[in-house]
Amino acid sequence: MSSNSSAQANRKGIVVLGIFAADLAFRAERMPRMGETLLGQRFNLGAGGKGSNQAVAAARVGGAVHLLTRIGDDAFGQLALDTWRSVGIDTRHARVMAGESTGAAFIFVSQQTGDNAIIVTGGAANGLSAKDIDAADDALADAAVFIAQLEQPVEAMQAGLRAARRHGVMTVLNPAPAPAEDLGDEVYGLCDYITPNESEAEALTGVAIKNIDDARVAAQRLLDRGVGCAVITLGSQGVLLHDATQSIHVPCFQAGAVVDTSGAGDAFNGAFTVALAERMTTLEALRFASAVAGISVTRPGTAPSMPTRAEALALLDAAPLPA
């Protein structure tokens, strides 16, 4: 092994590019119609935003996490800093922008099912650009895994993938929310892993996913565009991993009654990056991430719902692989 390859193999860090949003979560029987006011059952203010959630999830299960983002100098920005510091996230490249607001999200949570609908704005993080990636080059050079989503500008995501590839860093793109326009072959070619859910996979490929076979068709289309490995999360049906040599379906983990699904995807992605950074096998990584996601849906909120590594390992021990 060359000295450069050896150095890459010894990397353990994770760089997350994404936004923070203060989650304003409302639980009610249903969404109100236009012009209608409903009484809700519960309100909660918490830390959210896909990038921040994934960073918190990764840190909670033992990842060495570096977060690349922007926040405002307001109360929501202080909530972000307090959240990150509480779990040991490196915030050297989380810029506080004077005079700007921090991102926020409206989250409706069904009182009956725990399913959710979300409106999010990035606030100061809407200004993330290639310059922010350049400023964080030292963090990328030392990382094992880089992950981004689509809540921040596409320019920043593309620059992050390019920089990660230049440094020999594994790349993960969580294409959420689903893009309104085609991402382009260059982006797909820069993705070692892409992790859409069913609706995002349909938006990317045009394949409506109703079962595992549909997911495989969609995953293959992503590979045909240049992706190294497609990981499609399927909610209660589990997750599908599909690459050039294997197609593996992992059922979801049942950790208790479903309370709130809003943080499940972020829990999965954060844990998945940790598994990749620790050089787990593909199946181990999928199961580890699925266990973390399975626990998260039994709790309210997004960042507050992320479990510890010990909790995830306990659930894995209770559901061992078949002999």
Q: Can you characterise this structure?
A:
The chain has 323 residues and is of the alpha/beta class. It has a single domain, classed as 3-Layer(aba) Sandwich (UDP-N-acetylmuramoyl-L-alanine:D-glutamate ligase). Helix content is 37%, strand content 24%. The chain has helices at residues 3-9, 50-60, 75-87, 130-135, 137-141, 154-166, 185-189, 198-205, 212-224, 264-277, 282-296, 309-318, and strands spanning 13-17, 21-28, 42-48, 64-72, 94-97, 102-110, 116-123, 143-148, 170-173, 193-194, 229-233, 239-243, 247-250. A nine-stranded mixed beta sheet has the order 5-4-1-8-9-10-11-12-13, sandwiched between helices. Strands 3-2-6-7 form a four-stranded mixed beta sheet. It is globular. The two termini are 34 Å apart. The relative contact order is 0.15. K(+) binds at residues 260, 262, 296, 299, 301, 305. The active site is at residue 266. ATP binds at residues 197, 233-238, 265-266. Pathway: Carbohydrate metabolism; D-ribose degradation; D-ribose 5-phosphate from beta-D-ribopyranose: step 2/2.
Structure, briefly:
The chain has 323 residues and is of the alpha/beta class.
Which labels suit this protein?
323 residues; alpha/beta; UDP-N-acetylmuramoyl-L-alanine:D-glutamate ligase; 9-stranded mixed beta sheet; 4-stranded mixed beta sheet; 13 strands; 24% strand
